[in-house]
Amino acid sequence: MATKKATMVNHTKYRPGYYPPPQESFEWVSRDHVTKAPRWCSVDLRDGNQALIEPMTLQEKLDMFKFLCRIGFKEIEVGFPAASDTEYEFIRRLVKDNLIPDDVVIQVLTQSRRHIIEKTFEALNGVKHAVVHLYNSVSYAQRQQVFRASQDEVKKIATDGAKLIKEIAMHHPDTHYQYEYSPESFTGTEMEYALDVCNAVIDIWEPTPDNKVIINLPATVEMSMPHVFANQVEYMSKNLHNRESVCISLHPHNDRGTAVAAAELGLLAGGDRIEGTLFGNGERTGNVDVVTLAMNMFSHGVDPELDFTHMPDIVGAYEHFTGLEVSPRHPYSGSLVFAAFSGSHQDAIAKGMNWREETDPSRWTVPYLPIDPHDVGRKYDGNVIRINSQSGKGGVAYLIKRDHGFDIPQLMRPEVGYMMKGISDRRGEELSADEIFEIFSNEYVNYFDPLDITHARFSHLDTTKTKGDDAYSVDMRVELNNEIYYLKATGNGRLDAVSNALRKTEYNFSNYEFITYSEHAISADSNSMAAAYICIADKNGNEYWGVGTQADIILASVNALVSALNRMNKNTHFLDEDHAKAEEAKAV
Fold this sequence. Notes:
The protein contains 18 helices and 14 strands. The chain has helices at 44-50, 58-71, 85-96, 114-123, 140-147, 151-169, 191-205, 226-239, 259-268, 290-299, 311-322, 343-358, 393-404, 413-427, 433-444, 494-502, 553-572, 574-587; strands at residues 39-42, 75-79, 105-111, 129-137, 176-184, 213-219, 246-252, 273-276, 451-460, 472-480, 483-491, 512-521, 530-538, 543-550.
């Protein structure tokens, strides 16, 4: 039976609300990545703060300002002084208490109204350096529906504000003021008109290469695909007056979920500066995420000139100041962003890590990990390879080797991996690296119940009369089901001698065969413990692994054999069956 085609009938009410440039602007397409960091301006204390259900207190704003300075922001929009007493007092505190570092510039926002502009300069009185950010909306929808004003009337709002700011600034010669203008809702504005308004403001402010003006192009509401925004930016970059004296700033919002992409393409198209927030906090779906944008550059080998080397601390501070949570899958910063649960992913990561160690540790090319988690303060422990019911053999083996030095043989890995997956599935939860090793150790390593060889002394019988099959002898003390045996035997090797000695008990140890054996030092130290791995098969072909450790590799291999035999006993109870046969034979 066919299902009804899904549809959202109200899609017909929507039309693209953006305006492409009047001429093609595609030079940015030839640039494949951003090659240098832009000028960064944090707007967390303005856009970010006004988007919070409970805006920050004065003290919280002061603390966050210091936090943003520590990250490395050199330009910080600290607020709208005329908007509230808290914003005004915050700026006064920064100035009066000399809390602004010499290399940091604060930025303040103002509308194009005389009393607001005057209040703005009043708040900045005594500051050494500041950016005064003038804005007014110029979009077609705002002109038509909100202002009900003509293009000339809206343009006059911008130029009147620009003139007043320049006039007042001249009365404060001890402060270095830089001017910024934003044609709000730029992307919903006819490009020729947006250009006309911006050029009119530039002509009033008369910038120089040493004292540039900032023309900020905000995607106040993200309306288009990122490449359209890039075309708009390139058009403006090519046609603004006095371009060498203009810094083009980009202020993307995230209504379509592509603010980071739009910002990256906008930088390729001529943008010089980015206004954004940590983790994209802002009204509606937020501003451009500076963390992701900067880390994208980092992953391409570009120094972003912001310090995110302690990402967990950045996340913690952000969550403290805002009351918001960073998603566990947030790029670069989420708690699960480096986690691999998939078996195939884990296997590739493990092999990639080994390849890097064996070849070129200076380059990072590990599959599934775009950057080294260590570079953002994340540890491999419990972060990269995570074990649950979806995981595979490679991930489990990698964790055990990484944390404890046991290099599980390839033939053994499927068994160990499936065991961990099964336990995780039954528990319905993820297994930690510590839990994985505890399970592995309890199941395989030095498993001495019910059989335990508590003492073994080997001799090499090197005489001309000794056959090859009897080249070694062993004297050993064995505990088996609470009984003590003192056994002696020969064999073609030490393990063969041990096995032959065990056959001299009343239990039958002959119903198994060796499948494979391997060994290694657990670490590179001279006093390292040795690890041995033995696989045996019972008379039905079922295989059992055992792992032994000891300072002496020979004794480690003996422990591995004992572990394998005890695991076979646990699964088949062959000792009990053989003991019963032995007792029956005695009776006869």
